[in-house]
Structures are given as structure tokens and as C-alpha cells.
Amino acid sequence: MSEMIVVLPKERFKAIKGKDINALLRENLPKAEETLKAEREEFLREKVAKLEEKLREMESEIEELREFYEKALKDKELMMSEREGLRKENAELRAKVEERRSELEKVHKS
């Protein structure tokens, strides 16, 4: 059997002096177990509440990231379509410049 050390205030020690310690322990053990169980349950409830709060914060952050990502995708699509439009416009302008250049070359050669 392992050794257990119990520290008591002087008054409490005097009150139990001469009594059967084993009987006192057996009598009070269920109360101590209930107290420890209640304390543990309270600790776990607090822990669960903190974790639930953290979960809500994380879900909120995930929603913000999702919104940011969706906006970024829309912006990317818009930029891609703008780029494609600019490429077409650039190609048309180059063709017109080439056409003008060739016309000017014909005029100068004549």
C-alpha cells in the first residue's frame, strides 16, 4: 500500500485526534470523490466552452477567407477577360499600323 500524507489545520487535527482515521476516510471518501468529480466536470465544461468559442472564431475566419478567395477568383476572371480584350485590341491596332505603314511606304516609293 502506498503512503499518503494529509495536512490538516491544528484545530481539525485536535478534533479528530483519537478517532479511527480509516473509518473517517471511508466515510468521507464518497464526498471527496463527488467533489473531485464535480470539479472535473466544471473544468471540462469550461474547456468545452473555450473550445466552442475558438471554433466559432475559426469558422468566422474561414468564412472571411472564403469570401476573399471568391472575390479574388472573380477579380482574376475579370482581369483575364480584360487582358484578352486588350490582346485583341492590340492585334487590331498592330494590323492597322502595319497597313498604314505599307500604305505610306507605297506613297514614298512612288
Write the layout of secondary structure elements.
Elements: H1 10-16, H2 21-109
Write up this protein.
The chain is mostly helical and 110 residues long. The chain has one domain (10-109). 87% of the residues lie in helices and 0% in strands. It is built from 2 helices and no strands. The termini are far apart. The model has no long low-confidence stretch (mean pLDDT 92). Keywords: Coiled coil. Residues 22-110 form a coiled coil.
Short summary:
By secondary structure, the protein is mainly α.
Keywords:
110 residues; mainly alpha; coiled coil
Q: How many discrete domains?
A: 1
Summed over residues and divided by their number, the pLDDT gives a mean of 92
Q: What share of residues is helical?
A: over 70%
Strand content range? under 5%
Sketch the major β-sheet: none
Tally of helical runs: 2
Low-confidence stretches: none
Keywords: Coiled coil
